[in-house]
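Before relying on records like the one below, remember that each one covers exactly one chain. Contacts with other chains, cofactors or solvent are not represented anywhere in the record.
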Amino acid sequence: MGHRDGGWKTEGAGYRFAIILIACCVYGSCASAEKDCHQPLYLTFDTGHMGIAPLVAEVLKRQQVRVTFFAANERTKEGDGSLGEHWAPWWRARAAEGHEFASHTWSHGYWRADLGHAPNPSFLVRPSAGPRAGQEFAMSAADYCADITQAAERLRLLTGRAPLPLFRAPGGKTSPQLLASARACGYLHVGWSPAGFLGDDLPSERISNAALLRKALRGVRSGDILLAHLGIWSRKDPWAPAVLEPLIVGLQQQGFCFRTLREHPALREHLAAHAHSGDAAATAR
């Protein structure tokens, strides 16, 4: 949540890079169509209150689109957190459908400032989940990596699949030092494109679903990474499925196709370098 400042950033340089959703001709049998994907989009979802998660899953399955989920253990309307036992069957079902997964940090901690310096950096963070939600405190680089890894390992347990060695910082808020620290423990940050910010965390009183749909259909470009959420507390008029399905259909009618971040050309080198024994075969798909 609070993602308006996001972007794709890498160690040593901060830059915004556009990307969105990607319809991977589904769960098994469209190899020829996959090869014909000339205008890929990469759709990604961050966790949230999970209230619309079942509806999102229905739309993705109906439209035969695979996406990448970035997960944190956020507070939910039902159950014990977005990565808790209540939602375990939902995550297992998404894995069976061929979606990809990556960390959004366990505590959904927002970076606020750099505190230390190399070789012992630390960061001021403010989590929005967990026992220290709403508090600001210092976190060492090692602890920040552990927070990323905790969500990744929980995803591995829930889905039975190795998550991608990627992460998305809450709010897209980072610094060059934070990115370098995450990279040192094997995680590359992935944000979203300017047009890929789908606006589902904006108040519905300010901008309607119809306006968000028109904006996305007008602005998205090939190669964009799109960002949406599995439930935003502050949005009274839910974004999905009202916008999600017509957005997918409309973009496909414009000649776009959908892929997961595993298939993004700019990430292949990193994914290959950090392929663990459990997911090496998947990386080679």
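The first strand starts at residue 9 and ends at 10.
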